[in-house]
Design a protein that fits this description.
about 525 residues, mainly alpha, zinc ion binding, two-stranded antiparallel ribbon, single chain, Herpes Virus-1
Length: about 525
């Protein structure tokens, strides 16, 4: 089934392709065939994507895992890879901490929050940040993404001031990325909008000497380092290296982000001048070892990636699909089936165009409904955990249904109370109405049983020899109208008099019609 619909850009490209083909006496490519090809490529890419396993989130440690000496103190079992990475390399963004409710803010490293300053989690990179720390003025319904995941999720962020690629990023004036904590701790840097905590400004004010410092932790001369607060020490280190190594870093973010930005009262010490109270709960020397190991392993991974450049890649660094040769060959066979000459060259051109179109849109070109798709990586031992989570969510849904039912009942009772209050107010302020209403209803019922004689009664008098209607004399319709207009609300006597007048008019009427005669008998 062909799903793709051409747009103006496709039409322009196809006309250009056809002009080239006509010059070499090749057949014309129709719009229908173009849509078939794009649909074919989308479906082939979808099938390929399903077979590519997702990133592994958990790792099993067995009782005989001798190669993992760093995990020798852990019991055998399944562990989150982020937790294991933190045990080996430390963490500078707090993602490793396990359950979301215990995960600290990636900027201030605090886990306390309130209604005005909640902790929000990025659905792209799993970092947690306070609203004030990251400048989240409004928490949207559904998913929330940090600035980097929102604009360049597939491209690794490189901080302008440190070598770390993890954490909470915001952009500088030049469009480069930088950690929010780097913007806070480097004294010369400021934020253009303290409310939204972006963009990071005044980079030109950072002295050249700071750019030339070498971090004593990671041994890298890159970015801009901060220095130990001890007057007799000039030890330099990156902000994120200090965070990963668990150096002493005192801030006043608890007093509010606006006050912190104004005062810039941030103090940190190297491992030699760390207060003894901090050392009681933090192993700084071990933290420095982990940080150095982290950057050493990163360097090895980078070298391996460069050596195996595009061999195993299925997407470019900016997310452009890289079609394997197998799909290209299948497309050639499809074109040959439609008896298209020059199929190899045409297949190559259409594959390139499709990849560029996919890159521009940053999304699939068609919607493929696949309700039966499941992950190929679900292991048997993961099933109980998924069932437990499903039961937990089911319990939450049942509680939500119960709460909704209670809200409906509450609103119904509120409506009933409102009706009762309205009746009581009417009885207090308009007591006559309550007395008149049942009498009038009974009279209307009686009149209805007698063909609405009182309602349609039109009294008349003789003027000379002519019989004329007297519009000033009441009938039942005019009495009901006065009742609806609350003209009897203050006087029961007036209502009584009008009824008497109506009855007297009927009795004194000189009309000889059957209606009037029957009405006189009734009264």
């Amino acid at each position: 089934q062909v799903v793709y619909d051409m747009d103006e850009q496709d039409d322009f490209y196809l006309s250009m392709i056809n002009k080239r083909r006509l010059k070499v006496n090749h057949c014309y490519i129709s719009h229908e065939l173009f849509e078939i090809v794009i649909t074919f490529l989308e479906k082939q890419w979808h099938l390929l994507s399903k077979r590519i396993p997702p990133k592994q989130k958990y790792f099993d440690i067995g009782p005989d895992a001798k190669e993992f000496q760093d995990f020798k103190n852990l019991k055998p079992g399944k562990y989150n890879i982020a937790v294991l990475n933190a045990l080996v390399y430390g963490s500078d963004d707090g993602v490793w901490c396990g359950p979301e409710q215990d995960q600290p803010c990636a900027i201030c490293y605090g886990s306390e929050c309130d209604n005005a300053n909640q902790i929000v989690f990025c659905d792209g990179c799993d970092i947690a940040v306070h609203q004030e720390c990251y400048g989240v003025v409004y928490i949207p319904e559904g998913q929330w993404y940090c600035r980097h995941c929102m604009t360049a999720k597939k491209k690794e962020a490189h901080c302008q001031f440190c070598p770390s690629t993890t954490g909470a990023f915001k952009q500088t004036e030049s469009g480069d990325w930088a950690h929010v904590i780097c913007g806070l701790w480097i004294p010369e840097l400021t934020f253009k909008s303290p409310v939204y905590m972006e963009t990071i400004d005044n980079i030109e004010n950072v002295p050249k000497g700071r750019w030339n410092l070498t971090c004593y932790i990671c041994k890298q001369k890159c970015g801009a380092c901060i220095q130990c607060a001890n007057k007799n020490c000039a030890q330099a280190y990156h902000v994120t290296c200090a965070r990963r190594s668990e150096l002493f870093m005192k801030h006043n973010l608890d007093a509010g982000m606006q006050n912190s930005l104004h005062l810039k009262n941030f103090v940190s010490f190297c491992d030699r001048h760390t207060p003894t109270t901090w050392l009681e709960n933090h192993d700084i020397k071990e933290g420095i070892k982990k940080t150095r190991l982290y950057y050493q392993e990163n360097k090895k991974d980078e070298n391996n990636r460069n050596s195996n450049n595009n061999i195993l890649r299925w997407e470019s660094s900016i997310g452009t699909p890289i079609l394997p040769n197998l799909i290209w060959e299948r497309l050639i066979k499809l074109l040959e089936y439609f008896q298209i000459d020059g199929s190899a060259k045409l297949s190559s051109d259409l594959c390139k165009y499709w990849a560029l179109k996919r890159e521009t849109k940053t999304a699939p070109l068609i919607k493929l409904h696949d309700p039966y798709t499941t992950s190929n990586n679900i292991k048997i031992e993961e099933i109980p955990e998924k069932i437990e989570m499903a039961n937990f969510l089911n319990g939450n849904i049942n509680n939500l249904i119960k709460i909704s039912d209670d809200i409906i009942k509450r609103q119904q009772l509120t409506l009933e109370k409102f009706d009762i209050d309205l009746k009581n107010i009417g009885n207090i302020y308009f007591p006559v109405i309550k007395l008149i209403k049942p009498v009038l209803e009974e009279l209307l019922k009686l009149d209805e049983e007698n063909n609405r004689l009182l309602w349609e009664f039109k009294p008349s008098i003789f003027k000379g020899t002519k019989l004329e209607y007297n519009i000033d004399i009441l009938n039942l319709e005019s009495i009901v109208l006065k009742f609806k207009l609350n003209q009897y609300s203050q006087s029961l006597l007036e209502f009584n008099n009008d009824i008497k007048i109506l009855f007297d008019n009927v009795n004194r009427s000189k009309q000889k019609t059957n209606k009037v005669l029957n009405l006189k008998k009734l009264l």
